[in-house]
Each structure stands twice: as structure tokens, then as C-alpha cells.
TrEMBL record:
<dbReference type="GO" id="GO:0097367">
    <property type="term" value="F:carbohydrate derivative binding"/>
</dbReference>
<keyword id="KW-0413">Isomerase</keyword>
<feature type="region of interest" description="Disordered">
    <location>
        <begin position="283"/>
        <end position="334"/>
    </location>
</feature>
<dbReference type="GO" id="GO:0006096">
    <property type="term" value="P:glycolytic process"/>
</dbReference>
<dbReference type="GO" id="GO:0005829">
    <property type="term" value="C:cytosol"/>
</dbReference>
<feature type="compositionally biased region" description="Acidic residues">
    <location>
        <begin position="314"/>
        <end position="326"/>
    </location>
</feature>
<dbReference type="GO" id="GO:0048029">
    <property type="term" value="F:monosaccharide binding"/>
</dbReference>
<dbReference type="GO" id="GO:0006094">
    <property type="term" value="P:gluconeogenesis"/>
</dbReference>
<keyword id="KW-0312">Gluconeogenesis</keyword>
<dbReference type="InterPro" id="IPR001672">
    <property type="entry name" value="G6P_Isomerase"/>
</dbReference>
<dbReference type="InterPro" id="IPR046348">
    <property type="entry name" value="SIS_dom_sf"/>
</dbReference>
<dbReference type="GO" id="GO:0051156">
    <property type="term" value="P:glucose 6-phosphate metabolic process"/>
</dbReference>
<dbReference type="GO" id="GO:0004347">
    <property type="term" value="F:glucose-6-phosphate isomerase activity"/>
</dbReference>
<keyword id="KW-0324">Glycolysis</keyword>
<protein>
    <submittedName>
        <fullName>Glucose-6-phosphate isomerase</fullName>
    </submittedName>
</protein>
Length: 555
């Protein structure tokens, strides 16, 4: 019996019934594992033909296990006990969940916020090793973080080539430069896209160096290859993909909640996989990560566009007797949303399961799950802003205390709006009551300001609609694609701040503060070009401004 259990109820169960026969008849599962690039139509074929090696990683990644163990021993002999990972999106989200679940410490630096970068640099460098991960080898955040660490090690009298390990695709600019400079480089499988790379060197190297058992992870994945590649109605990957994308009418918000799965942060990893894979051409499903302790539909007035995704323990209620209902209750109802799917299984198995389900969802939605066409537009806008040398030169629509208020994406801010509270109110009034969602996008130090995520539930209560909470620039590599490429349903609340103390990017003519400001302005610009309402709140004094914004948000 498979360690994976996927159960659907209500509209999600109807979706499974509706699509399973066809998926089995079309031999989608076996063709996927045979790397058939024609599964997503002609337009997707060329990209898919170079992106399907993830189906075989449970076996092909085995040689990495020994290599990682040897490297770990070497670093330990040099006194290393702290691992920092520099990388964005697919290059950091999997190690984050793997290490958190294994209970081993890993510092994930996926930000260009100067305060957050400085905090990572200032901790004990004498015991630190850094993994710099970038598939393309050209992601500006990762390159800037790498430069900062090279400089910091050098300043501390530590040879950076002894402490920095690079993970990248063969032949990337980072690969070539790092080898030339004498760094240790581990190449990843180039035929796997970033968000499908959990079981490549991107997921395994930082996790293994931090102390997670990566061999077990591969074992768990390998154990479910047979069931996931089987053209059978019981295939959990087909069932989950159908539940995610096959509801009619499409319930395009997936409200993730964890009911004691024991896997820490899986939804944050799945969020990128699903949002970046499906949110394009005006279609897609939006993952919404429910804050801990909150019911997923609580506060949502009309959840008829939502499916609840419950991550449950392998054993249902976790009491170890092996015979529980995985939905957590013997007579599990579909929940307030009328559509629910529950998922159980060990982490390694679930990584592969969600990848299969997302690929299946892509086929059902009729999109290419392997590209991210709208991410580049925000990157380009940020580059243009930096080249022009300024990011927030546009005049604010109004200033309220320590908060500059700018409205973009239409003429929705009334002229009589005289303060922050009125501007927030005006933005929220743009939400469609039955299909809309609010995205909160905070470009601040996500460790120091972790408590701001409480805004999410307050805003659900206030608006009656699903709310996503993303830290910039991290979310740009995740839900960022969906916000720009998915259905035009979102309204956006962006928060930026003047850094307490800026930090130069070594060897570049810009600072981290200028960089993150350009990223925020670039993303807002692209959203506005798509006609989406964006309220930009810039804190000229972070502490005072945050107090004001909290007041306006919490009402
Ligand atoms: O590993 P890279 O090439 O630095 O990219 C990081 C992330 O940026 C994206 O390419 C685009 O956001 C993601 O798909 C990817 O995971």
C-alpha cells in the first residue's frame, strides 16, 4: 500500500470523478513518467521536453548523498556549524521545508532587504558556510547576497572559497565564474525547472549540509514512483491534480491548512509550485496559505470559489493506530467551502506527489506548467528603474505621518481620500465579493517583522475574501507569477520602507536598499499596467509607519 493518501469530498470529489476516467484513458501518469513532452499541447512541447527529468530524481539524485556527506564532514572539520542558504524561489523553498521538518537549523536568506542581509552577515562568520544556489546563475538577489558574503568572509580574514559552496546548472554564468575563482561547485540536473527541483542538488545540498537525512527523503520519493506512474483511478497524483484544477465552475483558490501533518511549511513550498506553474494566460489556481491556528474558510463570506486543502498526519489523527480517516473525522464533511481535499504522506513522497499533481493540473487547465512568462516582466521593470537611478521618485498621492501613499492601476483612489485609512478602505472596496482576493506584499525584513503576518486574518475578516501574505522579494518568485499572469481578480497592498541602515552591494553601483525599492516599484508598475489596483505604502520611518499601517489594516 502507498504511503500517500489523497481523499476528496464535495466539489473536489466531483472533479476527481469527472476527470479520472479521461486521465487514465489518456495514460497521463505513465506518459509523464516516460517524459512525454506532448502532454500539455504543442505550444508547451519544446519547454516540456527539457523540463521533465524530475520524474526520475528519486534514483538519479542518489550519487549526491555521498558527495554531500563528504562535504559536510569537510566543513565540520573546519569548524562549520551554521549553514546559510542564499537563493530565491525554487532554489530555497524546498530546503526550507526539508530542514524545518527535520528540525535542523538552516538560515534561509531569500531577500534583498538590507536589514535581513545584514543580520545574516553579522552572525558568527567563523562557524558559517554559505550555499549559493541559483539554477540560472543570474538571479540578481542571489548574486548580490553572494557578493556580500564574499566581502564579509574576506573582511573577517576567512578564505571565501573554503566556505562558499555553489549549486547551479552546468554552464551557467555562476558555474563558470565560480569554477574559475576556485569555489566548490555542485551542478544540478539542468533538465529540471527551479520549482520542480526539490530532489535535485538545489533541495539536497543545503539540506544535507545542515544535517537533514536526504537519503531518507529520496527513499520516500522512490517508494511512491510506481503508484504515481500507474494509469489507475487510485493514483494519488491524478486525484490531487483533478481536485485542484477540475472543479466546475473552477474553484480557483486553494486554501491550505495544516492539521498536524508534521511537515513544517509544506504549503509555502507548494505555493510556489502551484502559483508559478498554473498562473498564466489569465488562468490558474491560487494557493492561499492559511495562518496557523485559523480555520481556512473563517471570515470568507462566500467560499464558493474555494477548495480547502488539508495536510493531515500520515495516520489521520496522528494517534498511531493506522486506521483513522485521513480527513481527520469519521464523517468528514466537505467543510464550509463545500469542496475539500486531504493529503497525507511523508515529505519525500509528497514532494513528488505535488509535482505530479501540478503537472496534471496544468494539463486540465490547458496551460504550460513549466514556464513563468510574467516573472521576467517585473525583473525587467526593476532593472529599468535601477538603470534610471531612482525608484520612488514619483510624487505620493498623499502623505500621512510616516507613510507615503501612492495609488496605481486605475483611478480608484477618490480625490477626497485624506489619509491612510481612507486609502486602505478605497483599495478594499475594489475587491469583487465573489471572485476577488487581496494580496498583501511586504518588502521588509521577514524575520524581524514576522508578526505582521497577523494582518492576513484581520484582512480576511474585514473583506470577507481570501488574502495572501507575501514577503517581497520572496513572493515575486512564487505567487508573483500568478498575480500578474493569472485571472484579473486581485487587488494589491504593497508595503515598503526606508531601511534603518542601507548596505552596499559589493562591486555594484547600487545598494540593497535601492535594489529592493526598485523591485517593489517594478512589480507595482507591471501590476498597474495589467490594470490591477495597487496601493503602495512607503514607510519613511519603519517603526512609526508600521504602527500607522497596522492601525489602518486592523481597523
Ligand atoms: O534558481 P534561479 O535561477 O536563481 O531562480 C530562482 C527562481 O526564480 C524564478 O526563475 C523566477 O521567479 C523561479 O522559477 C526560480 O525558482
Amino acid at each position: 500500500m502507498s504511503s500517500l493518501v489523497v481523499q476528496a469530498v464535495g466539489a473536489a470529489a466531483d472533479a476527481v470523478d469527472r476527470h479520472l476516467t479521461q486521465l487514465v484513458q489518456d495514460e497521463v501518469a505513465s506518459r509523464l513518467f516516460a517524459r512525454d513532452a506532448t502532454l500539455w499541447g504543442e505550444a508547451a512541447e519544446s519547454e516540456a521536453s527539457i523540463r521533465l527529468s524530475w520524474v526520475g530524481l528519486a534514483r538519479s539524485s542518489r550519487p549526491l548523498v555521498g558527495e554531500i556527506a563528504a562535504l559536510r564532514d569537510q566543513l565540520r572539520l573546519r569548524g562549520v556549524s551554521r549553514i546559510v542558504l542564499c537563493g530565491m524561489g525554487g532554489s530555497s523553498l524546498a530546503p526550507e521545508v526539508i530542514c524545518a521538518t527535520a528540525g535542523v537549523p538552516l538560515v534561509v536568506l531569500d531577500s534583498s532587504d538590507p536589514d535581513m542581509v545584514r543580520a545574516a552577515l553579522e552572525d558568527d562568520l567563523s562557524v558559517t558556510a554559505v550555499v549559493v544556489s541559483s539554477k540560472s546563475g543570474s538571479t540578481l538577489e542571489t548574486d548580490s547576497q553572494r557578493r556580500a558574503f564574499v566581502q564579509a568572509f574576506t573582511d573577517a580574514g576567512i578564505d571565501p572559497t573554503e566556505r562558499i559552496v555553489v549549486v547551479t546548472d552546468p554552464g551557467s554564468p555562476l558555474d563558470e565564474q565560480s569554477r574559475a575563482d576556485g569555489y566548490r561547485v555542485v551542478n544540478a540536473d539542468p533538465h529540471v525547472g527551479g520549482r520542480y527541483s526539490a530532489l535535485t542538488a538545489f533541495g539536497l545540498v543545503p539540506s544535507g549540509l545542515a544535517g537533514a537525512d536526504v537519503a531518507q527523503l529520496l527513499d520516500e520519493a522512490e517508494e511512491v514512483v510506481d503508484v504515481l506512474s500507474d494509469d489507475d483511478r487510485g493514483n494519488p497524483g491524478l486525484r490531487l491534480g483533478a481536485a485542484m484544477a477540475g472543479t466546475e465552475p473552477l474553484r480557483d483558490k486553494l486554501l491550505f491548512t495544516d492539521a498536524g501533518s508534521g511537515i513544517v511549511g509544506l504549503a509555502d513550498w507548494a505555493e510556489q509550485l502551484i502559483a508559478e506553474s498554473t498562473g498564466k494566460e489569465g488562468r490558474g489556481v491560487l494557493p492561499v496559505v492559511t495562518p496557523e491556528g485559523q480555520e481556512p474558510t473563517q471570515g470568507i463570506t462566500d467560499p464558493s470559489d474555494c477548495t480547502v486543502v488539508v495536510l493531515v498526519p500520515e495516520d489521520g489523527d496522528g494517534d498511531g493506530d493506522g486506521d483513522d480517516d485521513p480527513l481527520g473525522s469519521p464523517d468528514a464533511a466537505p467543510g464550509a467551502a463545500g469542496s475539500l481535499v486531504s493529503v497525507a504522506g511523508p515529505l519525500g513522497a509528497q514532494l513528488l506527489l505535488w509535482e505530479v499533481a501540478t503537472a496534471v493540473a496544468g494539463r486540465i487547465l490547458g496551460i504550460n506548467p513549466f514556464d513563468q512568462p510574467d516573472v521576467e516582466s517585473a525583473k525587467q521593470a526593476a532593472r529599468d528603474i535601477m538603470a534610471a537611478g531612482s525608484s520612488t521618485s514619483d510624487e505620493p498621492d498623499l502623505v500621512d505621518g510616516a507613510v507615503e501613499v501612492r495609488a496605481a492601476g486605475g483611478d480608484w483612489l477618490p480625490r477626497e481620500a485624506d489619509g491612510l485609512a481612507a486609502a486602505v478602505e478605497a483599495l478594499l472596496a475594489q475587491l469583487d465579493p465573489s471572485t476577488g482576493y487581496l494580496a498583501v506584499m511586504v518588502y521588509l525584513d521577514r524575520v524581524a517583522h514576522a508578526d505582521l503576518s497577523r494582518w492576513q486574518s484581520a484582512l480576511v475578516e474585514r473583506t470577507g475574501r481570501p488574502v495572501t501574505f507575501g514577503w517581497g522579494p520572496r513572493f515575486l518568485h512564487s505567487t508573483g507569477q500568478y498575480h500578474k499572469g493569472g485571472p484579473a481578480q486581485g487587488v494589491y497592498l504593497q508595503v515598503t520602507g526606508t531601511p534603518t541602515e542601507d548596505l552596499p552591494v559589493p562591486g555594484k553601483d547600487f545598494t540593497f536598499g535601492e535594489f529592493i525599492a526598485a523591485q517593489a516599484a517594478g512589480d507595482a508598475g507591471v501590476l498597474a499596467e495589467h490594470g490591477r489596483p495597487v496601493l503602495r505604502l512607503h514607510l519613511t520611518d519603519q517603526a512609526a509607519g508600521l504602527e500607522q499601517v497596522s492601525g489602518a489594516v486592523l481597523g
